[in-house]
Write a structure and sequence with these properties.
Number of strands: 8
Order of helices and strands: HEHEHEHEHEHEHEHE
Strand content: 15-25%
Strand order of the largest sheet: 7-6-5-4-3-2-1-8
Structural class: alpha/beta
Distance between the termini: 26 Å
Low-confidence stretches: none
Helix content: 40-55%
Radius of gyration: 19 Å
Number of helices: 8
Largest sheet: 8 strands, parallel
Bound molecules: pyridoxal-5'-phosphate
């Protein structure tokens, strides 16, 4: 008896959580649509990555069930666990958005739809070697440090300029775009400047790359105004949701 009451309580909690997640997702999509319209872009040209690094598996599954099928994880190990989990199956694309250690490439490659955080030539080279070995093509974004923060990972803009003409030498890699994060502690004007810098770098040196992944909870609207095609949103999706 006591057990069934508790189970019912748990189920209620789960359905409340799922409702909150679905509402948060709807709000974020609405904000994306509003800013897209304002700047004359189609909301359908902007992919929302739901960042699940803060929450448990049932919350991630609720986001997926609510219709967010692009999910992002920062840590390779957590991506492996979730991509292999029975809760998060179906039509899901996993994006790695945090640093990838070279000894984790082999296991990450077949599970990730896109490696958004390729931050060095050494890593790019190692991914190409492993993808060749596994007979697959790795979809990759190059992470660029546009803010000059010393603690941030990423290519310098100058390194991208030098790499651009050599990208076709990486035969097992499909570089689809660039990714960046705004300066830590900067305001929205600073973020807008960082995002504009990424767009200009792409336009000038890699005009064939379609994707610009930029913008998180605090700055995705200015990122869209500056041309983001991918936004990576975590916190706004988990407001009022217990994170366990
Ligand atoms: C955590 C993280 C995000 C999401 O950040 P929020 O501010 O919670 O939306 C986006 N991108 C990267 C690279 C992250 O590590």
């Amino acid at each position: 008896m006591e057990c069934s009451v508790r189970q019912r309580g748990h189920r209620l909690q789960q359905s409340t959580m799922a409702t909150t997640v679905a509402q948060n997702l709807a709000l974020v999509r609405e904000r994306i649509a509003r800013v897209a319209e304002k700047v004359g872009r189609a909301a359908s040209d902007i992919t929302l990555i739901g960042v699940t690094k803060y929450v448990g598996e049932s919350q991630a599954a609720a986001l997926l069930a609510a219709g967010c099928s692009d999910l992002g994880e920062s840590r390779p190990q957590q991506l492996w666990d979730r991509a292999g989990s029975k809760h998060c199956t179906g039509d899901v694309r996993w994006h790695l958005i945090g640093h990838l250690q070279r000894n984790k490439i082999a296991r990450t490659l077949p599970l990730a739809y896109c490696l958004q955080s390729v931050d060095s030539l050494r890593l790019l080279t190692a991914i190409n070697t492993e993808a060749t070995k596994q007979s697959l093509t790795a979809r990759v974004l190059l992470e660029v440090n546009c803010s000059g923060d010393a603690e941030k990972h990423g290519f310098t803009p100058q390194a991208i300029v030098e790499l651009a003409p050599k990208l076709n030498e990486f035969s097992a890699i499909d570089v689809t775009g660039l990714m960046t994060m705004a300066a830590r502690g900067g305001d929205l004007a600073v973020a807008a400047g960082n995002f504009a810098a990424l767009r200009k770098l792409r336009d000038k040196h890699l005009p064939d790359l379609p994707e610009l992944s930029m913008g998180m909870t605090g700055d995705f609207e200015v990122a869209i105004a500056e041309g983001a095609t991918i936004v990576r949103v975590g916190s706004a999706l988990w407001e009022g949701v217990e994170r366990g």
